[in-house]
Amino acid sequence: MPDIDQIAPHGGTLINLLASGAESEALRAEAANLPKLAVSDRELADLEMIAVGALSPLTGFQGEADYHSVLDSMHLTNGLPWSIPVTLSVDDDGAHRLGGATAVALTAGEGGEPLAILRISEIYSRDKAKEAVSVYRTDDPEHPGVAAVNAAGDKCVAGELQVIALPPHDDFLPYRLTPAETRAAFAERGWKTVVGFQTRNPIHRAHEYIQKCALEIVDGLLVHPLVGATKGDDVPADVRMRCYEALFEGYYPKDRAMVSVFPAAMRYAGPREAIWHAICRKNYGCTHFIVGRDHAGVGSYYGTYDAQQIFNEFAPGELGIQTLNFEHSFWCNRCEGMASPKTCPHGEDDRVSLSGTKVRDMLRAGERPPQEFSRPEVADILIAAMSERS
Ligand SMILES: [Zn+2]
Asked: ∠164-87-308 over CA atoms, to 5°?
């Protein structure tokens, strides 16, 4: 690998908890005799992220002191910025069953193979009301993040993890790069500066434009779609991935852009999740991170620029990754190009902009949106996916 100075992981060390060879066998043998705890899909995603270092410096599920510190001040007890608690929940029965145990084997689903051993440090009460208001800025049970918190158990079990195997996947395998692997890929390409782009949606011209504006000032672009749990009405990850492939094939320079997947579950926590997404991408080796309007938002819970402004609550340099804030963008007929309110003086009549609802209606009717809005290759994939589903 070429010798390139890369951005330090959050906290300074890239965590890797995946045991190898003999150690893994020993853990597997030990796990066979431990109490088992089936982990939800969301927490399984967190387990994977902790294991591979995407959540560095975390080495396990957070204890009560860190939990409250994150809620109260967006920092860990050691002073590092951290915006969303990473916890493992159990219901009261589960907590009772684990009472006195010093370790528990975590499984994917009931009866699954043990994936990790958690060395239990404490079991504590989850303050759901406080968590909802701190992280999601609302206690509305309709908010998907709040709903997930409310649906989880009332206790959290905390402790260090030792990982036997990563959660099994059968999709996107060539794209499942760990932070160590994206860092190696950046070094191989000679990229000193890399901008990360979080997405849970297909990429239309507006997002392509923003990515390429960012790419003008850095060496490389990592399109990093989230493929963990999302809301039921988001476009499925496999369809999105086909769109990214078509876009990359037709419109992105191969030596300047790459796509790999982000295994996290979506929280829809808006501003706090923007911080969390940025910290994770720093661990993946990104030096820059794009924050658009209403990043990680849902409904009308957050102000348009809240997710950009929250970064100002940290001291300069404290997060270690540079955010790039963007406005919404569009094709302007008079500018004859993509533009934003920052660069285009013309009015709405000259701009090609369509609401999400309008775009969905067109696609559902088998109609391509204008090519100024969406690349035809992307539109065709979405049209085909919609007709398969209906
Ligand atoms: Zn214009």
From this structure: 115
